[in-house]
Write a structure and sequence with these properties.
The chain is mainly alpha-helical. Helix content is about 80%, strand content about 0%. It is built from 15 helices and no strands. The longest helix is centred in the last third of the chain and has 29 residues, at about 215-245.
Length: about 290
């Protein structure tokens, strides 16, 4: 995999994806205040269907469905557009947006481990050192949540968000195999279509039309942001970045999620910036710097 500099299209795409995902904890928290958490998780994926369909028709995107490709595209759909949003939304409903943002920073750790295991390409020690330092920030977060019982936060919510990051990291492996041959748009749009149709029967069983009619405007606004921004635009940009820079190199940008998430939560939700939460963010950013210096 060629070395990718800071000023490159791959880096720009990764930052764009992380910036959009960084706003997801805040938007999800707003959505769960007016909408059932599980229904919100289902709707954010299902709502992406019409947008993805339009892009597929306009760009004439080919469905990856031959041999191993069918397994990979289903893998992206199930782990990235079903497992992640469901676990993440349920987790955010039980914790604070700031905590969710920091817990989501565990993604590079999972992504690096999976990449090393699958490709049998052990990252340099400098990478592991930087990631380990950043992960300490996540440990500080969990310790604060369990030990101090901050209002609105819980270890269960943090654990669900961490499980969501494991699921989305797994989707990166599936997507990285497909994107070089089919392109980021095809992988993103078709996985969104597949995930949406898988979840439609679940939504029909779980919610009634009356339930959907009572979703508040803020809930629908959150659904549109998560469907178009997080599930389509961010994923497309991210898969493009992975094909240029690789999982281990690009995934460290996920450590920037706390900066965006915590700032947004403090500004828009009035969530307190406790000393330990700030310390966790500083440690995570230190780890990012160490990785980028290698």
């Amino acid at each position: 995999m060629p070395r990718v500099g800071f000023f490159s299209l791959a880096t720009g795409a990764a930052i764009l994806a992380v910036f959009i995902w960084g706003g997801s904890p805040l938007v999800t928290k707003i959505g769960t205040q007016s909408t059932d958490a599980f229904a919100l998780a289902l709707l954010r994926t299902i709502a992406a269907i019409p947008f993805a369909f339009i892009v597929i028709v306009v760009m004439r995107l080919k469905l990856p469905w031959r041999g191993r490709d069918s397994i990979d595209i289903l893998g992206v759909a199930v782990t990235g557009l079903i497992g992640f949003p469901v676990l993440f939304t349920l987790g955010v409903a039980q914790t604070t947006a700031g905590h969710a943002a920091v817990a989501a920073a565990a993604t590079p750790v999972f992504a690096g481990l999976m990449d090393a295991a699958v490709n049998r390409r052990w990252p340099a020690m400098a990478w592991w050192f930087g990631v380990s330092v950043a992960f300490v920030g996540v440990v500080i977060l969990i310790w604060e949540s369990v030990g101090l019982q901050m209002v609105g936060a819980s270890w269960r919510g943090d654990l669900l968000v961490t499980a969501a990051t494991f699921s989305v990291a797994l989707s990166f492996l599936f997507g990285e195999r497909l994107t070089p041959r089919f392109g980021a748009p095809a992988v993103t749009m078709w996985s969104a279509i597949l995930a949406g149709f898988i979840l439609i029967p679940v939504l029909l069983v779980y919610a009634t039309l009356d339930d959907l009619a009572h979703v508040a405007p803020a809930g629908w606004a959150a659904i549109v942001y998560l469907a178009v921004g997080s599930s389509i635009v961010a994923y497309m940009a991210w898969f493009f970045a992975l094909t240029r820079g690789g999982i281990s190199r690009m995934s460290v940008w996920h450590f920037a999620l706390p900066v965006i998430g915590i700032a947004a939560a403090a500004i828009f939700l009035g969530e307190p910036l406790t000393p330990l939460l700030v310390a966790a963010t500083v440690v995570i950013l230190l780890g990012v710097g160490l990785v980028q210096r290698r």
